[in-house]
Amino acid sequence: MAKHTSAPERPTKKPRVDFTASRVKGSPVPQKRASKTNAKGQEKEKAKEKEPPRKKRKAVNSERPAPLPTSFKVIAGSYEKLLYGLEGSVSFDATAGLAFTLKPVFIFPAHVSCIKAVAASPHGGKWLATGSADEIVKVWDLRRRKEIGGLMHHEGSITHLLFPSRSHLLSASEDGTLCLFRARDWAVLRALRGHKGRVNAVAVHPSGKVALSVGKDRTLRMWDLMRGKGCASTKLGKEGELVRWSSDGALFAVQTASTIDLYTTDMTLIHTITHPSRLHDIRFCARVTGVGDVLLAGGEDGNLSVYAVSTDPDTLPRIVAQLAGHTNRVKAVQTLSIALPPGSPRASTTLAATASSDGRIHVYDLAALPPLANSASNPNGAASEKLDGGVPEIEPVASYDSKGTRLTCVTLADGDGIGSGGEVGEKRKRGDGAEEDDGEDDGDEDEEDEEWGGVGGAAEVGAMDDGDSAWEDEAEEEGEAEDEGEVESD
């Protein structure tokens, strides 16, 4: 018998055809028996339908811009364990102009050892954190003026404190770790390990997605805050004492002794500043008038020097002003933007507060800085101030004398008043004028906590950690993959 050589017919989706063809009009459609897997999937789908839509995760400090405050607070720590709190206000008179005042509101011993770091939560937040050589981070409520408690997770002196947002605190210690705390209940979300020895400073990128840290091990480490782990590091060849981001995140600075190295995000060294004296603190600040940043540098000579900096390698940084008034080393500097009273020549300004070993706290109005020249002959925006007669000296607009206390650190916090100046966004008062509390039960804090630690990759990480940069992958550096960038969770 001859073999049938015709190609077999292509099988059809018989069940579906049969169901459609044999069903009587108006009768229910036959259903397949659901498998266990399908049943579970259907249950998940039903659960998803009931759940409210989840918000897209954001970076740690991607809060909506808040109105600028009309008043401010200055908090400073000291070697003598004393914590100083000052309330600052500003008024305007058509004849006398702007007037700034400082009034002390509290002075007390906050730790059993010298206070080495202090930080206040931004955008109207109420938290104050202080770190000491006693290895404790203490948390205070600035509104109620009381202690909340102590965070005893470090096994070394606290070297640096930073609030990336109102709802999270980042700390660095001599024990080689960085800890991320959640302000809602002060739980440790992450313990970041990687440095071999003391961590000197940490700085969070303006996007809130990545952070940089420097330490005694002479490395610069990058942390992916969206994933909560170390992602890259590079050897500096010297111990970085401070690291700071520019206001737009295009540059960062690493300070060692009297030198400041300015890098782009791909680790290209574009400038090295050699300061006339040893430095104790540096900070970028956006200009009040014009565009770009200035770099504030507090040194052993008692001056706060103001450098004009640029991302252009051909435009060298240079001192354009000196904020004078101290008779001893400037230990710390912090800045804050505030709204000015109605009738003022401008809607807002930026203040710089300094703490010195001479026991004085000075507040400067950075609107007094020399303006940028916008002429065609000066396309790079170099400072218009002539250097023939030296740089201008700017005197403080307000001062406080602690009578000989050796101040070590300072921070600025929003006052209780909210002005109309600046950007309007996140509300800090309800429509009826009642103040919204950002404490443990605050809805905004819960929302921020949910948005922390997104699984999406940080754009800055990809830009900064490419194959052509000087960054080294954590898993490959010195063959110590098990130790590099280790993350612990409580």
TrEMBL record:
<dbReference type="InterPro" id="IPR036322">
    <property type="entry name" value="WD40_repeat_dom_sf"/>
</dbReference>
<dbReference type="InterPro" id="IPR019775">
    <property type="entry name" value="WD40_repeat_CS"/>
</dbReference>
<keyword id="KW-0853">WD repeat</keyword>
<feature type="compositionally biased region" description="Acidic residues">
    <location>
        <begin position="434"/>
        <end position="452"/>
    </location>
</feature>
<feature type="repeat" description="WD">
    <location>
        <begin position="108"/>
        <end position="150"/>
    </location>
</feature>
<feature type="repeat" description="WD">
    <location>
        <begin position="192"/>
        <end position="233"/>
    </location>
</feature>
<dbReference type="InterPro" id="IPR001680">
    <property type="entry name" value="WD40_rpt"/>
</dbReference>
<feature type="region of interest" description="Disordered">
    <location>
        <begin position="412"/>
        <end position="490"/>
    </location>
</feature>
<feature type="compositionally biased region" description="Basic and acidic residues">
    <location>
        <begin position="1"/>
        <end position="17"/>
    </location>
</feature>
<feature type="compositionally biased region" description="Basic and acidic residues">
    <location>
        <begin position="41"/>
        <end position="52"/>
    </location>
</feature>
<feature type="compositionally biased region" description="Low complexity">
    <location>
        <begin position="372"/>
        <end position="384"/>
    </location>
</feature>
<feature type="compositionally biased region" description="Basic and acidic residues">
    <location>
        <begin position="424"/>
        <end position="433"/>
    </location>
</feature>
<dbReference type="InterPro" id="IPR015943">
    <property type="entry name" value="WD40/YVTN_repeat-like_dom_sf"/>
</dbReference>
<dbReference type="InterPro" id="IPR051959">
    <property type="entry name" value="PAK1-Kinase_Regulator"/>
</dbReference>
<dbReference type="Pfam" id="PF00400">
    <property type="entry name" value="WD40"/>
</dbReference>
<keyword id="KW-0677">Repeat</keyword>
<feature type="region of interest" description="Disordered">
    <location>
        <begin position="1"/>
        <end position="67"/>
    </location>
</feature>
<protein>
    <submittedName>
        <fullName>WD40-repeat-containing domain protein</fullName>
    </submittedName>
</protein>
<feature type="region of interest" description="Disordered">
    <location>
        <begin position="372"/>
        <end position="398"/>
    </location>
</feature>
<feature type="compositionally biased region" description="Acidic residues">
    <location>
        <begin position="463"/>
        <end position="490"/>
    </location>
</feature>
